[in-house]
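Quick one:
INPUT:
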């Protein structure tokens, strides 16, 4: 058997394209595939070129040029046209460009290869399928995979409809689509494509007993295929006049069924005749099934988002009216899963005294019960505060309230152990005097506030605290007082802002410190700062700043920023002639809390984070530690630490005072080498630029000063 006979048996033709002579040689099968009589023939290039789609011809020129340059095969898909410009079939050409050198030395080439039909039905030809089925099935499977992936990723009804409008089915792409939804006994259009605005009006709202294909599909749950206008007119004469003006040739109406319930219908309309072969019906049915599931998922997701949004809006308060001399900003970001609600909250409460209270808290858990307890606890705290109770009393009452909720649920006999288990909550309550900037803070197991000074320096403000709410009903919560100076910003946050992303307290604060220390000015800077803090945790950059812990933990986030307006403040207009403001910090170390000496050392280190000479900063930390320790060892009272840095960078003066209630003045001693104490005054004389003791009405104040200087080079 000849090679030509074998190739003809598998619908493959041979051709030779001589570019130099401008002729094309075709065998009988190649001529048939090009729409010519099935006989071997030699034709001029122009006659063959007219058989190819113009777009495909332009593409194959580039493919052949590249194949000549690379010495590879040239492969292309070509649409064959008849004399009237209609597509007869699609063929695949594989050819080898061979270089020929002419007598005058010019380099030319000829193509030698095969041409084979691809079973890809074209508009108007679907009624007559070729016996080749492999390519059709492969393209159908690829289409369904792509469509399924795109529909699965759609998260809203609008996205699902946009994906449905972009579907291009293999061989019979529709040019008009519509999705119908059922509500009671009415059928309405929820989305359409391929129609002008207003075209959907006659079908926008119909009764289910209307003589229309979509309503019948919903009533029966069976698809309807209308391959011709005559068939449409015969089966649905009442609605045919409304459809005739669109100029369509074929229609398919398919039910959208999920879990046995028909939730709507899908229409695909075609301008070219479609016979709706079994393969085509299979594709349409599969797409309808995927579309129904995608719409169902999108509907559930939208309902959850609406519920979540409503719940958040009802639980998260507005920050209330403007406060003279102060500005507020707040953010709440729920964790990524479930209903997107959790136990974090914040509140701003006007008080009878003319002051106001800021509250931030975190109920244990990220579920619906945590959100419910959070709502109850927030209302209770607001009620206690509105009665005029002091911060410590508010938290004590809130702790008893939360503990009572747990005990009452234990007695309900609820079978769900999660709803029987007690929950605790952390909370930070701050009473603010907007006139003086005085803050009174009570803390129940919550992270301490952070203070951003006008020059960008950030200090953690240690405060006395008690157990989280709800653990022990009768718990005392000591109060810490300090002043928010003009230009300073206080940040309150839940642990989600610190620890999300696999961070611990240390690395989490380091990440936030970089944001807080950034220079910001302008009326909107406080809102911008709140956004930057959230973006540092949840934005794209957060994936490059993961913490040392193995898992990237997620948690709810609540953050509140309070700024007292003044020169250099990050919440108001920038001063015309900025002057570097003083840095101040104050801390009380009680006799019963010697562990807070470490907090005092940390306060000094943070205050001197940019001091020119690090040895001087170390000296200041050492002297502060010695001074506070001496107060706790040699007196019966508490130590009050006040530190202040004044002046321009490189020329600053640090003054530190430690006051106590004892009248006994320090005196110089001469300890031996093995002595464990007695060197305090010696250290002051060696390390401080100046120091002294100031008697007071009750007690005394020991102080020292350091003058900033660049570190001297080693001599």
């Amino acid at each position: 058997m000849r090679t030509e006979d074998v190739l003809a048996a598998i619908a493959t033709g041979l051709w030779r394209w001589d570019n130099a002579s401008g002729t094309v040689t075709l065998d009988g099968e190649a001529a048939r595939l090009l729409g010519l009589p099935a006989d071997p023939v030699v034709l001029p290039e122009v006659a063959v070129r007219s058989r190819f789609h113009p777009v495909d011809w332009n593409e194959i020129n580039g493919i052949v040029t590249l194949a000549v340059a690379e010495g590879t095969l040239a492969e292309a898909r070509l649409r064959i046209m008849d004399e009237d410009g209609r597509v007869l079939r699609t063929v695949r050409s594989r050819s080898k460009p061979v270089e020929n050198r002419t007598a005058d030395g010019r380099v030319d080439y000829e193509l030698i290869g095969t041409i084979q039909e691809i079973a890809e039905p074209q508009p108007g030809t679907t009624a007559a399928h070729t016996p080749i089925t492999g390519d059709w099935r492969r393209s159908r499977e690829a289409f369904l995979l792509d469509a399924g992936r795109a529909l699965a990723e759609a998260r809203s009804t609008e996205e699902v409809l946009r994906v449905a409008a972009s579907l291009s089915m293999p061989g019979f792409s529709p040019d008009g689509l519509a999705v119908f939804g059922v509500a009671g006994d009415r059928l309405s259009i929820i989305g359409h494509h391929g129609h002008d605005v207003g075209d959907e009006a006659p079908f926008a709202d119909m009764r289910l007993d209307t003589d229309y294909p979509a309503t019948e599909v919903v009533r029966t749950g069976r698809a309807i295929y209308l391959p011709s206008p005559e068939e449409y007119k015969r089966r649905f004469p009442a609605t045919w006049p409304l459809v005739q003006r669109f100029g369509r040739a074929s229609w398919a109406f398919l039910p959208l069924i999920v879990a046995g319930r028909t939730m709507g219908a899908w229409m695909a309309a075609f301008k070219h005749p479609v016979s709706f072969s079994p393969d085509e019906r299979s594709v349409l049915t599969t797409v309808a099934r995927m579309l129904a599931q995608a719409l169902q998922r999108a509907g559930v997701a939208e309902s959850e988002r609406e519920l979540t949004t409503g719940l958040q809006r009802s639980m998260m308060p507005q920050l209330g009216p403007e406060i003279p001399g102060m500005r507020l900003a707040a953010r709440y970001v729920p964790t990524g899963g479930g209903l997107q609600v959790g136990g974090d909250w914040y509140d701003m409460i006007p008080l009878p005294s003319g002051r106001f209270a800021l509250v931030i808290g975190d109920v244990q858990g990220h579920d619906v019960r945590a959100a419910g307890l959070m709502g109850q606890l927030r209302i209770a705290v607001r009620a206690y505060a509105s009665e005029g109770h002091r911060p410590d009393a508010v938290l004590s009452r809130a702790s008893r309230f939360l503990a009572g909720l747990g005990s009452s649920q234990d007695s309900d006999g609820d079978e769900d152990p999660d709803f029987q288990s007690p929950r605790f909550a952390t909370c930070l309550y701050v009473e603010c005097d907007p006139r003086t900037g005085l803050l009174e803070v009570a803390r129940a197991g919550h992270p301490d506030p952070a203070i951003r000074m006008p020059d960008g320096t950030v200090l953690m403000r240690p405060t006395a605290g008690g157990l989280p709410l709800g653990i022990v009903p009768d718990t005392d919560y000591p109060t810490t007082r300090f002043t928010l100076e003009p230009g300073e910003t206080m940040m309150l946050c839940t642990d989600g802002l610190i620890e999300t992303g696999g961070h611990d307290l240390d690395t989490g604060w380091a990440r936030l410190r970089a944001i807080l220390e950034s220079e910001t000015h302008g009326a909107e800077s406080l809102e911008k700062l709140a956004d930057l803090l959230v973006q540092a945790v949840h934005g794209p950059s957060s994936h490059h700043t993961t913490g040392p812990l193995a898992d990237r933990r997620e948690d709810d986030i609540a953050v509140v920023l309070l700024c007292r307006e003044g020169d250099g403040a990050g919440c108001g207009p920038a001063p015309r002639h900025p002057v570097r403001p003083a840095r101040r910090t104050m801390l009380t170390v009680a006799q019963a809390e010697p562990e807070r000496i470490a907090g005092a050392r940390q306060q000094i280190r943070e205050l001197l984070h940019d001091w020119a000479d690090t040895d001087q900063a170390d000296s200041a930390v050492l002297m502060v530690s010695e001074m506070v320790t001496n107060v706790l060892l040699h007196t019966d009272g508490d130590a009050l630490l006040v530190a202040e840095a004044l002046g321009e960078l490189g020329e600053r003066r640090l003054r530190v005072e430690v006051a106590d209630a004892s009248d006994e003045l320090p005196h110089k001693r001469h300890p031996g080498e093995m002595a464990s104490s007695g060197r305090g005054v010696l250290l002051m004389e060696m390390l401080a630029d100046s120091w002294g003791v100031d008697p007071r009405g009750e007690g005394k104040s020991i102080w020292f000063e350091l003058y900033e200087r660049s570190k001297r080079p080693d001599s």
